[in-house]
Amino acid sequence: MTEWVFVSSPAAKDAHKNLYHFSETSYIITGEDLMESLIGFRGNLSRLHIASTWTIMVGLAIWRARPHRGDMFLLLRNAGISAEELAPFRESEVGDIFPWLYYGKRFDVLRRICQTAKASTERHLKEKDTRVHCHLVVEDIPQIIASSL
């Protein structure tokens, strides 16, 4: 079985490596173009771990490299956040809502976003028959704070 880890940054790699201890050769640092790297990857992808930040994870969940605010709101509504809770963020950027979720300890919502990103990625890589695990990383720490596992 071939197992790869696509990470958005060296900090995301460190966060993943602290938990999973994969070999150095298993990691591919993609930067902000994680989705394009996934689509363009030509190796065997039997099992894939993705460790990335909030904005990239939202992008994977809706399968759009640059997610829009409206897409994120729909995603969050489906993850259990009410319209009333989202009202103060109606003019916010995609990245602006993450601190509210993180410091508000809405880890159930963050986990649902990871699960949606997992399903979306598997659906778009279906011809490769790939098993995907998504991990949401806070790069400042670095630590995985939510996962699809």
Task: Walk me through this protein's architecture.
- The chain is an alpha/beta fold and 149 residues long.
- It has one domain.
- Helices cover 44% and strands 18% of the residues.
- The protein is built from 7 helices and 5 strands.
- It has helices at residues 10-20, 34-40, 54-62, 69-78, 83-86, 98-103, 107-124, and strands at 3-7, 27-29, 47-52, 131-138, 143-147.
- Strands 2-1-3-4-5 form a 5-stranded mixed beta sheet.
- Helix 3 crosses helix 7.
Brief summary:
The protein is of the alpha/beta class and 149 residues long. It contains seven helices and five strands, in the order E-H-E-H-E-H-H-H-H-H-E-E.
